[in-house]
Amino acid sequence: MSNLIRPRGLSSVPRMGFTLVELLVVIAIIGVLMGLLLPAVQQARAAAYRMSSANQLKQIGLALANYESARGRFPAGYTSDPVRFTPHAATLDAGPGWAWGTMILPYLEQGGLYDQLNLALPCWAPENAAAVRIRVSSFISAGADGDLEAIQVANSSGTVLGVFGRSHFLANVGQDEPWGYSPPVADWKSISTSRFLGPFYRNSKTRVAEVRDGLSNTVFVGEHTSISNKTWVGVIPGTESCPVDTNRFPLTECDEAATFVLAHSGPAATEPGVVHPPGYPTAHVCQFFSPWQGANILFGDGSTRFVANDVNPDVWAAVSSMAGGETLNIEF
Asked: DSSP labels for 110-137?
C-alpha cells in the first residue's frame, strides 16, 4: 500500500487547535483592550452628543433672531390672558399658554405644524390635541437620557390635562423665580427684582434694547434633560413639572407649570444667596441640566458655550440677567 498517492496539499503533520490556556489568554487580552477602549469610545460619543446639542441651540438662536427681526421683539416665555381665560388662583396663569417654542416653529422649518395650531384657543384645547403631541426634532437632544415621546402634563392630583411634545431646552427667565411668589404676582416685569429678569417670562415682549447687559452676555436658552420632562408647547395653569426620578427627592420637588418651558439661575427672593449652575448635581426641575456636568447654553447673540457646573456662581448669575448692570469679568 506504500504506492498510494497522498492528495496534494495535505500535510502528514496533524493540525493543532488552541489549547484552553491559549483561549483564556486571548479572551483576557480582548477584555483588557475593550476596557481600555470603552472609556475613549464613550467620551467620543458624549463629545458628539454635546456638539449635536450645541448645533441645535444655534438653530434655535437663529430662529429667535429671525422672529425678532420680523416682529421687533423676542417671543414671550409663554402667553397668559386673564381677561379671556380664568386665571389659576395660585399662580395667576391663564390661557392660552402658548410658549416660546411654539412661536418660533415657522423659523425652524415647521411652518406646516404651526399652521395646524389654533393659537386663539388654549394650548390644551381638544382642537389642538393632535398637533401638540408631535415630536419636533429641533427640540430633542441626541444625548438626552430617557424617553423621547410626548409627555403627560398633570396637576398635583395626578389628573392629566394634556399630552405635549417633549423638549430638552428651556428659556431663561433670569435670576429670580417669579412663579414662586406668594401671593402670586400678575405682572412679572413689575416685581422688585425686575432688573434681574431674563429675556423670557410670562407675557414678555423683550426688545434688543432692553437687553442692556448685551446679547453676548445674556443667557437665552439652555439644555434641560434627564431629571424632569419639558415641552415646546406651552403652559397649562395648575399643572406641575415634577422630577422623573423620585429618588431625587428632596433635592428637587415638583414646581409650578411655568417650569415646563422656563428655567432660572438664582439667587431668588425665596432663596437669597443661592445660585444654581447648569448641570449641578442638586439641580431642581427649574434649572438647566444635562448629563455633561454642565450644559450647553445659547446666548442672545446666537453663540453657544458649554458652561460647566463649577462655573463661578457670580458669573453665572450675572449672565442670567439681561439688565443687572454687573461689571464682572465674564469668562467660562
From this structure: -HHHHHH--TTS-TTSGGGTTGGGPPPG
Q: How far apart are CA 62 and CA 221, in angstroms?
A: 12
How does the average pLDDT of the chain come out, rounded? 90
Nearest CA among 243, 237, 211 for reference residue 224: 243
Name residue, grid cell 476596557.
35
Q: Is residue 12, in this structure, part of any structural domain at all?
A: no
**Which is more confident, 106 or 195?**
106
> What domain range is 77 assigned to?
41-320
Q: Looking at residue 39, what is its pLDDT?
A: 63
- Neighbouring residues of 98: CB distance < 8 A, sequence distance ≥ 6: 78, 79, 117, 119, 123, 233, 234
Residue 331 is assigned to a structural domain of this protein: no
Planar angle of CA 273, 278, 280, nearest 5 degrees: 75
pLDDT per residue over 24-65, tens digit each? 777 777 777 767 665 655 565 666 778 889 999 999 999 999
Does the residue 70 lie in any domain?
yes
Q: What is the spatial distance between Cα 239 and Cα 235, in angstroms, rounded to a whole number?
A: 8
Domains: count for the chain: 1
Q: What is the Cα–Cα distance from 84 to 226, expressed in whole angstroms? A: 36
- Give pTM, 2 decimals: 0.87
